[in-house]
């Protein structure tokens, strides 16, 4: 059995795509997953299950769409992956506030998709690619980040599942999953 985190994209924002955390826990428990917990109200859940993360992602998305009546892009990642993301952080995470550092989790390796993005044009903001991840340093936070907007453009993420979390959430999910 492995501990996983399910990262749901674009829920509970502006009153749209409402997903109560109690119902999210019920859906995941209904799939036979155990030790189901949620973190914050923004689409983070952890659970214990057997199976491959990609396979679990599809099962969770199907169950959520069936329960809530709308599709919810989801990524399921395991604790060891979260540990690798934290260990590989190219920015001085211990020196930054959690709101200044973000990770966009991707369903596949970023490849050359982001090569045309000129990080220098957005300084002091910066980004680096990682294992199925994009690290973003946004000193004033994601809400005002121009580089964050550029990195989320459809031409860059088309065909991918992608969802971002601030560094505090990444660390918390790693801890909850036992990483």
TrEMBL record:
Domain of life of the source: Bacteria
Q: Which InterPro entries match?
A: DUF1697 (IPR012545)
Pfam families noted in UniProt: DUF1697
PANTHER family (alphabetical): BLL4334 PROTEIN, DUF1697 DOMAIN-CONTAINING PROTEIN
Q: What is this protein called?
A: DUF1697 domain-containing protein
